[in-house]
Amino acid sequence: MKPFEQQSLSQRLHLDVPLCFGLLVLCGLGLMVLYSAGGEDLSIIIRQAMRMGMAFVCMFLIAQLPPAVIERWSLWLFIAGIAMLVMVLWVGHVGKGAQRWLDMGFFRFQPSELMKLSVPMVVAWYLANKTLPPNLGNIIIVGLMIIIPVALIAKQPDLGTSLLVATAGLSVLFIAGMRWKLILIFGALCSMCAPILWYFMHDYQKRRVLTLFNPEQDPLGAGYHIIQSMIAIGSGGIYGKGWLNGTQSHLEFLPERSTDFIFAVYCEEFGLMGVLLLLCIYLFIIARGLYIAVNAQQTYGKLLAAALTLTFFVYIFVNMGMVIGQLPVVGVPLPLVSHGGTSMVTLILAFGILMSIHTHRRILSS
Amino acid sequence: MGLNFTLKDTEEESRLIRLRVYSAVVIIILLVMVLVARLFYLQVIRHDHFITLSQSNRVKVLPIAPIRGLIFSRDNVLLADNQPSFSLELIPEQIDNLDKTIGQLSRLIDIDEDSISRFKKLRREKRRFESIPLKFNLSEGEVARFSVERHKIPGAKVIARPYRYYPEKSGLVHALGYVARIDEKDLQNIDESDYLGTTHIGKLGVEKAYEDILHGRVGHQQVEVNAQGRIIRVLERTPPEPGQNIYLTLDLSLQTAASKIMQGKRGSIVAMDPDNGDILAFVSSPAYDPNPFVNGIDSKSYKVLLSSRDTPLINRALNGKYPPGSTVKPFLGIAALMFGVRNTDEAIWCRGWYTLRGHDHRYRDWKKGGHGHVDLNYAIMQSCDIYFYTLAHDLGITKLNKALTNFGFGIKTGIDIGGESAALVPSIDWKRSALNQPWYPGETLIAGIGQGYVLATPLQLVTATAALANHGKRVLPRLVYKISDPISGESTLLPIATPTYVVGYKQEHWDFVIQAMQDVVHGPRGTARRSGANAAYRFAGKTGTSQLFGIGQDVKYEKDKVPEHLRDHALFIAFAPLEAPKIALAIIVENGGSGSSTAAPIARKLLDHYLLDESGNLK
To answer: Do B17 and A224 touch (CB under 8 A)?
Structure first.
């Protein structure tokens, strides 16, 4: 590491300037869209901005930790997370009905969110000490590390989050070089399991999948979301109707418009040009994340940084895909734009880890 | 780089990871292209189509709440009605300054802070064009005052909506339960789409247990709105399906008679048809009026109910856990015959007290001086405690436990409205796990007279009594027997659950114990002979007087209350007529004194009421 005096301010603070820039632009844009989607209610914006601020503080704190510390904590965090998931299920069982929260007295905490970070961390920790590409035995062990929390979360039931946690874990495997042949076999197995999954799905989940294929079939019920969302997007055209001028959202045809379907509001008001801008911001952040991954010095850092970045992309893809009617409706928010605190905090914390990985590098040869 | 000493080929791994990151980049680019292609298709190619749709998108889907099913008694008396009630509602999007509007309104109508904060909470959850209730149950005067001024207050209107009304007031609340406004806890248990437009949901009793049947199915109407979102006309209507009507097994006349008798007393009366488990009367006293709960009881009245020392909110029939006292004696007597620890003509000498070998403690009989020579028939008829101490001692706690659980003590009865307590039949294992103590022989003795750890709910007592009346056939108690469709008028009888059987008891065992219970009321020395005298039918019964151990700490403060709260609980179980039982009964009067003087006369009155016509002949 350079002597302290020679470091730039951002290095001393362990902040990555391009990432920070990207995130701030995104959050600013997000607040703007939310103002329109939330019915021009300033109090929503203030609360969301405060949450963002708090998340950034947490990100800053995490970035101060050297990656070696994070690596050492991976397993314990994972074990604690599993314990809390079991506790949530147990409390939920006692209290009847779906349960995702753990009430810690002064604040409520969603252990499934923790798992979005903890699963890729523990998988990266495990694989970093093994020879890459991982052999079949290691893949099976990693598979268990993924499937246990995923099953626990799916049982809450929270299908959206469990899929994201699975994605985060599997991304590490992918980056670690799991052989293509195995990936293909795995994919084939998964598609064969699809009918079994179908059997275990709740009725409302089945309905969402069916709606995807034929939204017109039930225009007043399950298809209503998708139809209204596509009208919003399509009517936005190339340049959009202008900020605060979306009729679909402001006349309240669009359900869930400030949370999962906020992208439709954005498309309506800012058009294709706005969408391309938003995608550019997202891709800039992703590109920076992957750059950090490639330039990390330890295998752990490489694996984790790349996996977190890929998960970030999956968020974006799944949310947009669902809003434009290409994927079934699962509760995945649009990163840093959708209203709501928990998932946003997790996302920003992930970037804190990325910054930690990037800013604690040792410069071996100047 | 000085890393050659590691076993891992770090450089090779870095290359591998870099390659994988490049592959990821390719995949990301492909997926983004898919997104952009789809967006291009929607926003450019199909733009004209969607812009037309969006401009003509003036159609909204609004829910129409179904009408809740009515509840009737067995004899067709309406017990839960839907009555129109006026409520003041606001549509937020039509109001410029909400506080000003509420200020204007509160000059006409009395609006309290609770209502305003509830309104503000609802406003955040609902859409802006949806009508949100501000105040329920307007008086006629308030409606009139509002009507005069309404043109000055845009966005406010008075709406007549049907609300639940319970004409019997407090008489049936513990069986019927009530509906109240849906809260967050309810939302976790229901599919919200089924409850769009519905404001109330069953919270307790039959209203809760039969929610699915009573609620009906939500309807929809497609309405055309103008650019501000106001409704111009209705385009299409899918009418809601009203909820089904429900018929209770309760005999309202018997129920009312029982409630009247229990007025001013604490306790419970449950009557059941032993043949099919139909609950004929279900009284827990004191009761309370459910009507204020429907639209939210004010916190002051609620506090009064909650803090009352008579605990009217507790459903004693389901959750009152009482020491059953001597009412367990028939059940233990028959078990002793079955297990062979007693036979019918074996007698013991009762000198008024009993001690365990090697102990000094005297377990006393209720009768000073004792009963003398006592066989099983006499022991049940006279409720001799000493006989049952020895019987319990010879049975042992494990068989005693089996004897009681055979009849459903310590187990939930499975009544259709749920929410009941299992109460308790102790066992060695239970004591070890719950209290971490060994079982003492003395505890078996007092369990033998239904005291100590033994606890039973009135519902358990009546189902056990019915099982005795049925020679071992155990029926599932139920409060609802019929459902009818309000449109077609078609009614469906609910199937009677398959009974279970208490096995191992011989015909002569049943006959013997039932004879002994008959002697309790008709025998020359029966403890309830005064209540059995001159009956137009023969019946069987058993008195119980259970002692209270603990005295509440608060009792000391009010000296005049002490004796009342110290007094024993009076219990009585019965079934009648003997030849073909049509009704089984369990009565508990808290601190009512003795079973024979307090509870048994009540039983006689109710049996007469149910079995006899006005001129005193059997129906």
So the answer is: no
Q: Which residues in chain A are closer than 8 Å to B42, comparing Cβ atoms?
A: 230, 233-234, 324
Helix A299-323 / helix B10-40 crossing angle, nearest 10 deg? 10
A253 vs B10, B20, B60: nearest CB: B60
Indicate whether B513 and B405 sit together in one domain. yes
State the CATH number of the domain containing residue B523. Answer: 3.40.710.10
Rounded to an integer, what is the distance from CA A181 to the centroid of its chain? 27
B598 occurs within a structural domain: no
For A119-133, what is each residue's pLDDT tens digit?
A: 999 999 999 988 888
How far does the CA of residue B63 sit from the closest CA of chain A (Å)? 10
pLDDT for the residue numbered B61: 73
The answer to whether B467 touches B430, Cβ cutoff 8 Å, is no
- Do B160 and B205 belong together in one domain? yes
User: Does residue B51 share a domain with residue B74?
Assistant: no
Residue B299 falls in the annotated catalytic set: no
Question: Could you tell me the pLDDT band of residue B171, with boundaries at 50, 70 and 90?
Answer: confident
Question: Which of A208, A218, A233, A239 is best to mutate for the B interface (most B CBs within 10 A)?
Answer: A233
Residue B561 lies inside a defined structural domain of this protein = no
CATH of residue B161: 3.90.1310.10
Closest CB from A174, A286, A324 relative to B38: A324
Residue A243: strand, helix, or coil: coil
pLDDT for A217 equals: 57
Interface contacts (A, B; CB < 8 Å):
138
- Whether residue B41 is found in the same domain as residue B98: no
Q: Which of B43, B55, B125, B238 to mutate to test the interface with A (most CBs of A within 10 A)?
A: B43
Choose, out of B30, B50, B51, the residue to mutate when testing the contact with A (most A CBs < 10 Å): B50
Of residues A351 and B357, the one with the higher pLDDT is A351
Q: Are A269 and A243 in contact (CB under 8 A)?
A: yes
**Secondary structure of residue B379 in the 3-state scheme:** helix
Task: Indicate whether B387 and B525 sit together in one domain.
Answer: yes
Cα-Cα-Cα-Cα dihedral sign, residues B20, B22, B25, B31:
negative
The CA-atom distances, in angstroms, between B136 and each of A275, B97, B112, B157, B349 are 47, 22, 11, 12, 70
Q: Which of B115, B259, B326, B383 is flagged as catalytic?
A: B326
Q: H/E element holding B238?
A: strand B231-238
Chain A positions touching B10 (Cβ under 8 A) are: 299
Split into its structural domains, chain B has a count of 3
Mean pLDDT of B593-617: 90
ipTM: 0.92
Share of residues in chain A with pLDDT > 70 (%):
86
Tell me: pLDDT of A108 over 70.
no
Two structure tokens written together for B577? 């007529």
User: Which tens digit of pLDDT belongs to each residue from A20-36?
Assistant: 999 999 999 999 999 98
Q: Say if the Cβ atoms of A290 and B25 lie within 8 Å.
A: yes
The interaxial angle of helices A342-359 and A42-64, nearest 10 deg, is: 30
Of all residues in chain B, the percent with pLDDT exceeding 90 is: 51
Q: pLDDT digits over B263-302, tens only?
A: 999 999 999 999 999 999 999 989 999 998 887 787 888 8
- Token digits of residue A290: 């992957």
Give the DSSP letter of residue B217: B
Residue B551's pLDDT is: 37
Q: Is residue B601 part of a domain?
A: no
CB atoms within 10 A of CB B136: 18
Least confident of A312-326, B487-501, B560-574: B560-574
Same domain, B501 and B358: yes
- Does residue B183 lie in a domain region? yes
**Of B230, B248, B266, which one is at a domain's C-terminal end?**
B248
B37 and B184 belong to one structural domain? no
Do A286 and B28 lie within an 8 Å CB cutoff?
A: yes
Per the structure, the complete domain to which residue B16 belongs is given by 10-55
